[in-house]
Design brief:
Layout: E1 4-8, H1 15-23, E2 41-47, E3 50-56, H2 80-92, E4 96-102, H3 109-120, E5 125-130, H4 138-142, E6 152-154, H5 163-172, H6 187-191, E7 193-199, H7 205-213, E8 231-237, E9 240-246, H8 259-274, E10 277-283, H9 290-301, E11 306-311, H10 321-331, E12 340-342, H11 351-365, H12 371-384, E13 397-404, E14 409-414, H13 422-436, E15 444-449
């Protein structure tokens, strides 16, 4: 594991902007509105062969007694204690801290209290005076911060002023014995299977991650839209690493009027394309809504490896459970390869099935079938059930190949692919899945017209 440094500070000092600069990616949502970040987020900083982890945390406002203050921004009202708990947990994992302040605002009481809080940890602390947009402003904006007594650097996350110096100062705070571990690791080995949670607001995505990891890492609330950023959480479960990506709830675009929510939704959809497997979480109390169907269709069309989790099943009456299962089976029938699990984050019902099934789906996505086996299977399948005659001509198959994996893509060559009926294509898909044991992964079937069987690649004769 790489050494970690946490960015801490009051709301709206620019921690998320600095985080994005350091990891060279726009993962954290940034906005002029204070209090957008709530959950902690981790990313890798890689420079000149060195690597460490940077943690972005929610804005903290402390009072004179070093407890959460109620004078913070409206966006954080009701979440102050959860955010402070997340910051405290992050600090426990860190080798050093970076206290971020706003140079334009000057030294505020909240900054002084956070400085005292950081000093009590006993960790090395770097003071980053942010929003200093040039060398001509450095002396003016940093003058009063000297009283805090920390090593200090004036920077601008937005404009990039002195970011290289900032990175070097962060690197210098890390323990020297960590140097041997800084060789860039294989990302899959370090992060494990990457699993994204997707669904409508308040479906229980964060609760499921907490239940799976047996932690309180994600902030959970009855208030819909609590999660804003797409947050990565890496945990070891049963001696295997998994990275869970918690995403913001997705509502219909016509209902989104807030710019922060629009960024959150875009980030959520993007996260599903970068994950190995996506878990579509549906609120079991509300049934399959039109928005759930849109998300299901989106994942299916994009050939995303995913499964459906019907959450809050513990709230369904036991007598109604069988009928409820039938209803979901009917609603999701058009996407038959996708597994559906009834779970409860509260009672842990069904949770043991999730990770093994996610592993299976990912393994199926990487399957590679030899061409000879493909064509033997094709001959058997077509012999058993020939394609129907269309306009007095029966489509004739010559051969098939596998073009790629992730997802498995199979190309069929025939005399006229436009004559193939939809129901016969579904028959071929079922046959491919059954023959090659691809039960739940998405697959692509492509059809090409070829008027000569000689187009099949000939085997090369071995030289004697």
């Amino acid at each position: 594991m790489t050494a970690k440094i946490a960015l801490i500070g009051r709301p709206n000092v620019g921690k998320s902007t600095l985080f994005n600069r350091l990891i060279r990616s726009n993962r954290a949502i940034t906005h002029d509105r204070p209090g957008v970040t709530r959950d902690r987020m981790e990313g890798f900083v890689r420079r000149d062969g060195d690597e460490w982890t940077i943690i972005d945390t929610g804005g903290v406002t402390l009072d004179e007694n070093q407890i959460t203050a109620a004078q913070g921004p409206n966006e954080l009202r009701g979440f102050e204690e959860e955010i402070l708990r997340g910051v405290t947990e992050a600090i426990e994992e860190c080798a050093a801290l970076c206290l971020v302040v706003d140079g334009r605002d000057g030294l505020l009481p909240f900054d002084r209290r956070l400085a005292t809080y950081a000093r009590k940890t006993g960790l090395p602390v770097l003071l980053a005076v942010n929003k200093v947009d040039g060398a001509e402003l450095e002396e003016e904006y940093t003058a009063e911060f000297h009283e805090l007594g920390f090593p200090m650097v004036a920077i601008s996350g937005e404009h990039g002023f002195q970011m290289r110096t900032f990175e070097m100062m962060l690197r210098d705070m890390l323990p020297q014995e960590e140097d041997e571990e800084f060789a860039a690791p294989d990302e899959y080995k370090q992060l494990g299977l990457k699993i994204a949670m997707l669904g409508r607001p308040n479906a229980g995505k964060s609760s499921l991650i907490n239940a799976l990891t047996k932690s309180q890492r994600m902030i959970v609330s009855d208030v819909a839209g609590t999660t804003r950023d797409s947050v990565d959480i890496t945990y070891e479960i049963n001696e295997k690493l998994y990275t869970f990506v918690d995403t913001a709830g997705i509502r219909r675009r016509t209902k989104i009027t807030d710019t922060v929510e629009r960024y959150s939704v875009n980030s959520s959809i993007k996260s599903s394309t970068k994950a190995n497997v996506t878990l579509l979480v549906i609120d079991g109390q509300e049934g399959v809504t039109s928005q759930d169907k849109r998300l299901l269709k989106l994942l299916d069309e994009r050939k995303t490896p995913f499964m459906v989790l019907i959450n809050k099943t513990d709230l369904v009456e036991p007598k109604q459970m069988q009928e409820v299962r039938k209803q979901y089976q009917h609603e999701l029938a058009y996407c038959g390869h996708v597994p559906v699990i009834h779970v409860s984050a509260h009672t842990r019902m069904g949770l043991k099935q999730i990770l093994p099934l996610a592993e299976q789906i990912w393994q199926e996505c990487a399957v590679r079938i030899p061409t000879s086996m493909l064509n033997r299977t094709l001959e058997e399948v077509v012999t058993k059930h020939q394609p129907p005659v269309v306009k007095r001509v029966r489509p004739k198959f010559f051969y098939m190949t596998q073009a790629e994996t992730l997802p498995p893509t199979f190309v069929f060559f025939c005399n006229d692919h436009e004559r193939l009926k939809e129901h016969y294509i579904r028959y071929l898909e079922k046959a491919v899945r059954k023959s090659f044991k691809i039960a739940h992964a998405p697959i692509r079937l492509k059809f090409r017209s070829s008027h000569s069987k000689r187009s099949f690649p000939k085997k090369k004769k071995k030289k004697r």
